[in-house]
Dol-P-Glc:Glc(2)Man(9)GlcNAc(2)-PP-Dol alpha-1,2-glucosyltransferase (Cherax quadricarinatus), 128 residues
Amino acid sequence: MGTPQPSFIFPLVILTFTAVSYVFFVVVYTVQPTPFIDEIFHIPQAQKYCEGSFLEWDPKITTLPGLYLFSIGLNGPVSWVLGHQLCDVFSLRITNLVAAAFMLFTLHKLLIHLHKDKIDSWKLMLSG
């Protein structure tokens, strides 16, 4: 249905999204390098997870620990390779950028799987 998109378009979209998000990330980090808003609760909790303290929990936090687990799953192997812990504010914040790029990719693949015969491939890409 419609014009098929060249195979390099979606990777280019993800790359552009990630690059623009990274520039925004650096600007925000430059202006605010310390935890702010709800990070004052979440950063210390994520750092406890990085240290392996999974049973300590801040009662002010009402969300599930999914992002903390994702952070140590992503940062743990990188920390091991680099030889030092990556649980500082910068590393924990950038985990969100990696997750956003991954979610964009995953959502696009899911939409293709569900609607590939019903919607033009360009619309599927824009929906992601």
User: Anything to note?
Assistant: The longest helix spans residues 89-115. The chain has a mean pLDDT of 86. Residues 9-51+63-127 form one domain.
